[in-house]
Design a protein that fits this description.
It contains 19 helices and 14 strands. Helix 16 links the parallel strand 12 and strand 13. The mean pLDDT is about 90.
Length: about 400
């Protein structure tokens, strides 16, 4: 089975390089990995001690932050090496100040794994939520490096729990301890004979709850909002935007702030062209003289930058969180929830426990089409009591 797996990984590497010729995102995936070993060699000396964290993408990074911060404080003489698999995680957080080295994770080939381990030589390794790379896990186990899964979540449909999943089940032997989000994940692992399990919950709750204690003020948002009912759209994809544009164009006395997941200039321009209301880009704001920008005169503000969405959610009266029409599904809904904002999402959220719970509690509303979105927006925009009730459900959920 290992031979077949390694053949598939090498074949995937070849195919990805071809696809990169036609896809900007995949090109980032390929180009970003070309210099990984050079970066690691330059930043890690033979005498350095390291601790390795791996996050698939941005959401997993956010889940791992509380643990990384605690580890950084407890082991100040170790370098924190952070790897990402996805461009949507790496490109947004490549300049983070917590990790000493941030790179893409080289593909899980035996050659890459050996080279990575030879350079990094971690004293500990942490995998966040998921992504179980057999060659990396086998290498960690063979070197007797303590390895932990944090904010893990398991489902019956995963390969570990299938009759043919023995190869992947064996890879789980590398983990010294499993810190999982819920009791159902623990029960599934117990069926595999694992007893080294702690139900620790979702570390993102600690992270987002701490957001309330930070300074979330943004002067330009206050001027734009101008005490007007405001909808904040976070991490939107084209499918989300195709539905939202209709609401933007037809709504009166409502302001929209939209922070797309992808801030590619062409996609931003295309989005702006679809909106009939008076629209401004974040990149066009005159920050030397906010009054000269006359932000209060605009109806829609497109955030064509990264890193400020969390603070913007604090100004929302209603939040729409994107990703719910694609794979793996909706983005982080805990950030707007912590500010007590009613939330709207797309139909694909079942892989996310917090989204499933909030939909069931009716603090969050899932929509599948234009009609449902329009109906939900109308109900929330016209009734402040409903907004307050759903927002209270969301904030209470985070505090629990």
């Amino acid at each position: 089975m290992l031979f077949i797996y390694n053949f598939i990984v090498v074949l995937a590497d070849f195919i990805i390089k071809i696809v990169a010729l036609f896809s900007k995102k995949i090109k980032l995936f390929v180009e970003g990995r070309k210099s990984v070993f050079k970066i690691l060699s330059n930043k890690i000396k033979y005498y350095d001690k390291t601790i390795w964290f791996h996050a698939a993408s941005l959401g997993e990074y956010e889940q791992g932050l509380p643990v990384m911060e605690r580890i950084k404080s407890r082991f100040p003489n170790h370098l924190i090496v952070l790897t990402f698999f996805s461009p949507s995680g790496y490109e947004v957080r490549k300049n983070n100040t917590l990790a000493d080295v941030t790179v893409y994770l080289p593909l899980d080939t035996q050659t890459n794994v050996e080279q990575f381990m030879k350079i990094v030589r971690p004293d500990m390794a942490f995998f966040i939520k998921y992504e179980y790379w057999p060659n990396y896990l086998n290498a960690l186990q063979n070197r007797e490096i303590p390895t932990y899964l944090i904010s893990g979540i398991f489902r019956e449909k995963q390969v570990f729990f299938k009759w043919y999943g023995g190869f992947y089940r064996k890879a789980l032997d590398a983990f010294e301890h499993f810190f999982v989000q819920n009791s159902s994940s623990k029960e599934l692992l117990l069926k595999l004979g694992k007893t080294n399990i702690t139900v620790s919950g979702d570390t993102r709750f600690d992270r987002v709850f701490a957001i309330l204690n930070q300074n979330n003020q943004l002067d330009f948002i206050e001027k734009f909002k101008n005490n007007t009912l405001t909808v904040v759209v976070g991490s939107s994809w084209p499918k989300d935007e195709s539905l939202l544009v209709d609401c933007m164009n037809s709504s009166n006395n409502v302001k929209f702030i939209i922070a797309p997941h992808n801030i590619n200039k062409d996609q931003i321009a295309d989005l702006k062209n679809q909106i009939s209301k008076k629209t401004m880009l974040f990149s066009s704001i005159n920050f030397n003289d906010l009054d000269a920008s006359k932000l209060n005169e605009y109806d829609v503000l497109i955030i064509d930058t990264i890193g400020i969405l969390t603070k913007i959610y604090s100004y929302a009266d209603i939040a729409y969180v994107g990703g719910g029409f694609g794979k793996p599904g909706v983005h982080n809904i805990l950030e707007p929830a912590t500010f007590g904002v009613p939330i709207i999402i797309g139909p694909k959220y079942s892989h996310f426990a917090e989204a499933t719970a909030l939909v069931k509690m009716e603090g969050c509303t899932s929509i599948s089409n234009q009609e449902e979105l329009n109906e939900t927006f109308d109900k929330l925009l016209q009734n402040s009591d409903i907004r307050l009730e759903k927002g209270h459900i969301c904030s209470t959920f985070v505090e629990m």
